[in-house]
Design brief:
The chain has 84 residues and is α+β, with helices and mostly antiparallel strands. It is built from three helices and five strands.
Length: 84
């Protein structure tokens, strides 16, 4: 019998749109519309992959996009390096 520990399941790396909205709201207190996300994808500011008919967003890319200003109007103020 092998005494090595079982490999842990990797944490979730990709989010669908609904999960992306929940993630941004809980972590950054930032509500996102479908339009703003799709504009960011179209302008290549937010990378995504297509899995069949669904678009998936990598959490690291979402964080980078949010902390980089995510293309929101400049009247939003920055909090801890992000947008609020």
């Amino acid at each position: 019998m092998n005494n090595q520990p079982l490999a842990q399941k990797p944490s979730r790396e990709y989010l669908n749109f609904k999960s992306l909205q929940e993630y941004c709201l809980s972590k950054y207190d930032l509500p996102l519309s479908r339009t703003s996300v799709y504009r960011a994808v179209r302008s290549r500011k937010l990378p995504s992959i297509k899995n069949n008919a669904r678009r998936l967003y990598r959490i690291a890319d979402v964080d980078r996009w949010i902390l980089g200003g995510c293309g929101l109007p400049s009247d939003n103020h920055k909090v801890e390096g992000g947008i609020k």
